[in-house]
Amino acid sequence: MISSVRGPVLEIGLDHAVVDVGGLGYAVFCTPSTLAGLRRGTEATLATTLIVREESLTLFGFADADERELFLLLQTVSGIGPRLALATIAVLEPDVLRRALHDGDLVTLQRIPGVGRKSAERLVVELRDKVLVTPTAAPSASAPAQSGNARREQVVEALVGLGFTLRPAEQAVDAVLAETPDADPARLLRTALSSLGRSR
């Protein structure tokens, strides 16, 4: 298992970063909040986990080991795979997710795309006793401001990468931008994901 990577950041997309490790460029899929803390050309250290499938090897990266453990814990629940686990952390910050699981807050859990009431109940039943509620962490530094069009294109691309079709993804992002035109990419993705989750 690749438990961490460290090196200069070569590229940053909305859903992944490329990190140079000993001359090899590793594509690491991350949450928006983790990506917001990276800067191209600056060395980064990410806690990682490698998901092995018959047809692929996919590396997921996190700001710290605690977020990685939550990502892995989510996948112990039937029906929760890596993509949904990452989307879950994208929609709900780790502390918010832990609190929702601990308190049995089904409304909050149903903001996750693809999670209905029964799935939310299953998450609570299976994970309530496995999470520790911690004080709310200070918000991370936001990424440099981008134009609305650049943010729109990046977020739409990320949503399509998460399995949504183009048209609904565009409509969800446009709706968020109409209400909060200054939303940073992480907030824009999180809100659009929540909206798409409610519409399913």
TrEMBL record:
The Helix-hairpin-helix DNA-binding motif class domain covers 72-91, 107-126
The keyword Transport appears for this protein: no
Instruction: Report the superkingdom from the record.
Output: Bacteria
Q: What is its main location?
A: cytoplasm
Q: Where in the cell is it found?
A: Cytoplasm
Instruction: Report keywords, A-Z.
Output: Cytoplasm, DNA damage, DNA recombination, DNA repair, DNA-binding
User: Keyword Cytoplasm: yes or no?
Assistant: yes
A Pfam family per the record: RuvA_C
Q: Where is this region: Domain III?
A: 147-200
> Matching CDD domains, A to Z?
UBA_RuvA_C (cd14332)
Q: Which InterPro entries match?
A: DNA_helicase_Holl-junc_RuvA_I (IPR013849), Hlx-hairpin-Hlx_DNA-bd_motif (IPR003583), NA-bd_OB-fold (IPR012340), RuvA (IPR000085), RuvA_2-like (IPR010994), RuvA_C (IPR011114), RuvA_C_sf (IPR036267)
Q: Which residues form a coiled coil?
A: none
Q: Gene3D superfamilies given for it?
A: 5' to 3' exonuclease, C-terminal subdomain, DNA helicase RuvA subunit, C-terminal domain, Nucleic acid-binding proteins
Question: Could you give the subunit structure recorded for this chain?
Answer: Homotetramer. Forms an RuvA(8)-RuvB(12)-Holliday junction (HJ) complex. HJ DNA is sandwiched between 2 RuvA tetramers; dsDNA enters through RuvA and exits via RuvB. An RuvB hexamer assembles on each DNA strand where it exits the tetramer. Each RuvB hexamer is contacted by two RuvA subunits (via domain III) on 2 adjacent RuvB subunits; this complex drives branch migration. In the full resolvosome a probable DNA-RuvA(4)-RuvB(12)-RuvC(2) complex forms which resolves the HJ.
Q: What does this protein do?
A: The RuvA-RuvB-RuvC complex processes Holliday junction (HJ) DNA during genetic recombination and DNA repair, while the RuvA-RuvB complex plays an important role in the rescue of blocked DNA replication forks via replication fork reversal (RFR). RuvA specifically binds to HJ cruciform DNA, conferring on it an open structure. The RuvB hexamer acts as an ATP-dependent pump, pulling dsDNA into and through the RuvAB complex. HJ branch migration allows RuvC to scan DNA until it finds its consensus sequence, where it cleaves and resolves the cruciform DNA.
What the entry says about domains is: Has three domains with a flexible linker between the domains II and III and assumes an 'L' shape. Domain III is highly mobile and contacts RuvB.
The family this protein is said to belong to: Belongs to the RuvA family.
Name of the protein in its database record: Holliday junction branch migration complex subunit RuvA
Native source species: Pseudonocardia xishanensis
User: Gene for this protein?
Assistant: ruvA
